[in-house]
Amino acid sequence: MTSTIADMKNATVHVPRGRRYPGEWEALPLIRFLNRPDEVAIKRLSALIGAFQELDQLDPIGRRKKFGNLEEYQRVIEISSTIGETLGAYRLRPRVVLPGKGKNWSIQWVSGGDLGCAPDNFASPFTEGDAVLLVLSLAQRIERGRRLIDKPRRCKRCERWLFARFKRHLYCSKKCQQAFYRSSPEWKRKRKKQKAAAEKDAQRREADWLRRVGRPRPRYQ
After folding, report:
1. Which of 189, 183, 143 is nearest to 163 (CA)?
2. 182 lies in a domain?
3. For position 101, what pLDDT does the model report?
4. What is the pTM of this model?
5. Between 74 and 8, whose confidence is greater?
6. What is d(CA 27, CA 134) in angstroms, rounded to the nearest whole number?
7. Does 137 reside within a domain?
8. Concatenated DSSP letters for 158-205?
9. Which domain holds residue 41?
10. Is the pLDDT confidence value at 154 over 80?
11. Does residue 177 fall inside a structural domain?
């Protein structure tokens, strides 16, 4: 495990403006939904995302070798079954979407039913079912040999959800990055050493002054 100082140096904070990375714009409604104060829905979605991320680690893209042991294979089967049961609680239906001028119509899957029910109109609110659709989209989308399902993650300090642009993307903001670093044992030890070195240097300068002048350095209030 890398140290907190190493994490601090290598970490990237989430900046919503500027350059967009693959999947970031599409995942933005999901990230916003995950940061809502709906504990029940967030708990379900967090478990679903975690299951997909674990499945991606155990059975990555392009895996050419067999599973290392029987327990690993059984775990993959267990996760797949759990994901299937979770998704079975959601109701989705297709809907024709009429686009703007100069574009073709398309078919869109929308949420409905017991979990994440939304009215059938163009002003439908973003629901839990819509968030599940985005999770499925990220789980299937592949960029640079990696599934994008590993992009949604929690800030290492405040646990708010963010879209990780890079593997070292650990914090939702610069404020959280610095606060986490200052609370780490590594930073406290480093700060203690710096303070001791500063006090030692001050004593050395005081001794040099006393030796040259013959009296203590004047103190100004």
Report:
1. 143
2. no
3. 66
4. 0.66
5. 74
6. 7
7. yes
8. T--EEE-SSTTEEESSHHHHHHHHHTSHHHHHHHHHHHHHHHHHHHHH
9. 24-150
10. yes
11. no
